[in-house]
Design goal:
With 282 residues, the chain is mostly helical. The protein has two domains: 96 residues, Cytochrome c-like domain (Cytochrome Bc1 Complex, Chain D, domain 2, Orthogonal Bundle); 128 residues, Cytochrome Bc1 Complex, Chain D, domain 2. Helix content is 42%, strand content 3%. The chain contains ten helices and four strands, in the order ααββααααααββαα. It has a two-stranded antiparallel ribbon with strand order 1-2. The chain has a two-stranded antiparallel sheet with strand order 3-4. Helix 2 packs across helix 5, helix 4 packs across helix 5 and helix 8 crosses helix 10. The chain is elongated, with a radius of gyration of 24 Å. About 5% of the residues have low confidence.
Amino acid sequence: MNKRQTRLFAIASTAIASLVFIGMTIDSHRQFPTLTNAQNITPAVRSGQDVWHKYNCINCHTLFGEGAYYAPDLTKITQHRGEQYLQAYMRDPSQFYDEQRHRRLMPKQNLSEEEIKNLIAFLDWVSKVDNQGWPPRPILVTGASIPGTDMAAAPKEGGEAPPGARPQTGNENPIALGERAFRSATPACNACHSIAPGVNMAGPSLAGVGSRAEKLVSSPDYKGKAKDAMGYIRESITDPSAHIVPGAMYSANGVSFMPNTYGKGLKPEQIDQIAAYLATLK
């Protein structure tokens, strides 16, 4: 190939590549309204986006894999946590961890109730964007464990705080207390259950248990005595063999492998708190 042919080849290749790039760009923009559910971008969603930027959330969190890696990816957070959980967390994140023992702290931003509502609306819109499977897996904080298996977060038996922990004031949110009790029960719930989707341990993943409980209670296949989702979750804690999920590998001869001692080992309010926490898992 002589110089002239090489030059023509380079020009033609560049032209073809440019046309392909332009075509793909145009096609992507054509699909954006459908992929992003643009019809669902309400004033609340736009205001929530402003809140996201105002408080520089992206400095610690990622959306669609973009952002900092100091805190978990929030692309699908509203599909994993209910609105009550997110509201409680945004009002006072410190109730969900021990400031004296943990170093990845979520600052209290003093968001107004309107800002919290709009931010949740924005994150809910984000969670429903067709992101073509990206990111391919949940992005965890460096060194973090599978969600729901953080043993270091557990206070002592009976809710007693470890040395140096922030004292309880009596004003803690029940959902936050439930998350602590989830880790501090004997045996600890998170020793057998994760809250990450698809991560089964000695027991099944509890991701989405709140949504599943609602469907199960209304199903004709349900054999327990609960009347609603919260009741089913309480029943699963205190009497795990009341309803055995058909085909599950976590029971034998109609008896669940889960200990049936929580009804005696936990106080009634602790069971209610754990149920309130688990009910927020969508």
